[in-house]
């Protein structure tokens, strides 16, 4: 589902007020609107004037001719007074949340790049409250269009489920909630840029985090022609107070929501928490920080069983009810939530080199990972499982590092799809006060044979055969022991 809302008509900035000016030599210079100068879309703009305080602009006729002749030539130094654009862009698609940062990015882009700004918001299951009032906020910030896309089903089916099938876990704990969401959002931004005719995309990621890499590698992979603007790596704003001051200066309404002491990211898969007391790994998280899982101590005193149906390595049903990918995950989130399932506290290595501490809530995802892994214990042989587990580490690293559209990940995904064709069946799990235990596994492709595994003698396995196997298997150890004995006798 795609919703496209036109917020306001976007007109080019009038960089040349209708008044005669004087060039640097003191002669009268013609003042013309930008479109009459013939400056092409995507070319360099000469200057920018705030609509509230029009600074005098002196235009040298030679400079005008230079701009008309070539939209790639730089403007001679000293030709203009006032705000000089960093680069002239036509239209920018901005990843927009409606918070303080993205609210000030809208006017900042217009001021520094002379462009129209199309705000884009992806619904990846962050909650209806996060989507409320976005049209009004975007309009107040100066955006010319708001595009909202519901990506929940695509997110789960095409991003979460492949990682689940691969068994991708980063550094033993992290189930890649944010890492999987960024490429689906960035891909949608590339699509929107094509739909609205934008020549650039922008995001509000800081220069210290992983997300800037995840967004931009996706942009590079899907449309390398797009320009990318990352304000946090360019502007002079250094914190919340600077952003508020900038917003006031440009008459942008500051979001009045209470600032959380934690930095959070939420989608249908997980909720992450960083910052404040969590920055010291010695501090235990406060209970009031958690939002989508109950305290395991307060969970029901009676365990609950849940049966997960799996087809070719992917979940398809809960307690016999077939559900769409997003609906299935939503249902398991609710079940896991009430039993305090999926809380993880970890110190991880960020892609940019530093360590960071985060706390994650992933109730439904933890249930699914447990179910798929347990079914594989029936359907995968030892060698295949070991190779799969080793590749899962690399798979997780690629996803964490933003290389979703890397040919290596896509090739590994083809391998994962092939070897899990027989991972079909069901797993029954027991949930109790934050823990998950297995209550049962079954598969029509099970490699487990009771007649072989039984202690009773059978026709397929002759216990007497084990003697020869052990002698051959232990031959290197016997030879080494014989050598050592001969050496020291």
Automatic annotation (TrEMBL):
Segments forming domain Arginosuccinate synthase-like N-terminal: 91-253
GO biological process, one term: L-arginine biosynthetic process
InterPro entries per UniProt: Arginosuc_syn_C, Arginosuc_syn_N, Arginosuc_synth, Arginosuc_synth_CS, Arginosuc_synth_type_1_subfam, AS_cat/multimer_dom_body, Rossmann-like_a/b/a_fold
Annotated ranges, domain Arginosuccinate synthase C-terminal: 262-479
PROSITE patterns, sorted: ARGININOSUCCIN_SYN_1 (PS00564), ARGININOSUCCIN_SYN_2 (PS00565)
UniProt pathway: Amino-acid biosynthesis; L-arginine biosynthesis; L-arginine from L-ornithine and carbamoyl phosphate: step 2/3
Pfam (any one): Arginosuc_syn_C
Subunit composition and interactions: Homotetramer.
The name this protein goes by in its record: argininosuccinate synthase
Organism listed in the record: Coffea arabica
Gene that encodes the chain: LOC113710286
């Amino acid at each position: 589902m795609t919703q496209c809302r036109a917020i306001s008509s976007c007109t080019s900035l009038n960089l040349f007020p209708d008044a005669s000016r004087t060039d640097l030599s003191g002669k009268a210079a013609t003042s013309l609107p930008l479109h009459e100068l013939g400056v092409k879309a995507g070319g360099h703009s000469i200057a920018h004037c705030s609509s509230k305080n029009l600074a005098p602009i002196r235009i040298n006729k030679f400079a005008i001719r230079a701009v008309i002749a070539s939209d790639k030539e730089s403007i001679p130094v000293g030709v203009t007074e006032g705000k000089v654009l960093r680069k002239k862009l036509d239209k920018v698609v901005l990843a927009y949340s409606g918070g303080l940062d993205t609210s000030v990015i809208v006017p900042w882009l217009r001021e520094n790049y002379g462009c129209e700004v199309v705000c884009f918001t992806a619904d990846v299951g962050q909650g209806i409250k996060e989507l409320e009032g976005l049209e009004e906020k975007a309009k107040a910030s100066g955006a010319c269009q708001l595009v909202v896309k519901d990506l929940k089903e695509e997110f789960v089916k095409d991003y979460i489920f492949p990682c689940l099938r691969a068994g991708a876990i980063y550094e033993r704990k992290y189930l890649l909630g944010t890492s999987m969401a960024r490429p689906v959002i960035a891909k949608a931004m590339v699509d929107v840029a094509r739909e609205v005719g934008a020549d650039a995309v922008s995001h509000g990621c800081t220069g210290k985090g992983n997300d800037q890499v995840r967004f931009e590698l996706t942009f590079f992979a899907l449309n390398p022609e797009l320009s990318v603007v990352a304000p946090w790596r360019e502007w002079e704003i250094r914190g919340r107070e600077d952003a508020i001051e900038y917003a006031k200066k440009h008459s942008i309404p500051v979001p009045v929501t209470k600032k959380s002491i934690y930095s959070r990211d939420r989608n249908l898969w997980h909720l992450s928490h960083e910052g404040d007391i969590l920055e010291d790994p010695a501090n235990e998280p406060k209970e009031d920080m958690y939002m989508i899982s109950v305290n395991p101590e307060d969970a029901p005193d009676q365990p609950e069983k849940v049966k997960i149906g799996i087809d070719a390595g992917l979940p398809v049903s809960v307690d016999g009810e077939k559900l769409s990918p997003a609906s299935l995950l939503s249902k398991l989130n609710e079940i896991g939530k009430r039993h305090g399932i999926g809380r993880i506290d970890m110190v991880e290595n960020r892609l940019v080199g530093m360590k960071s501490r985060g706390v994650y809530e992933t109730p439904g995802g933890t249930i699914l990972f447990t179910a798929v892994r347990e079914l594989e214990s029936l359907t995968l042989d030892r060698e295949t499982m070991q190779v799969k587990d080793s590749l899962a580490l690399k798979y997780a690293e690629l996803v964490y590092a933003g290389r979703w559209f890397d040919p290596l990940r896509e090739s590994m995904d083809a391998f994962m799809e092939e070897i899990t064709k027989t991972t079909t069946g069901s797993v029954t799990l027991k949930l109790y006060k934050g823990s998950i235990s297995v209550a049962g596994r079954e598969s029509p492709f099970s490699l487990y044979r009771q007649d072989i595994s039984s202690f009773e003698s059978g026709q397929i396995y002759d216990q007497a055969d084990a003697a020869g196997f052990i002698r051959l298997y232990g031959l290197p150890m016997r030879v080494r022991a014989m050598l050592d004995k001969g050496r020291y006798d």
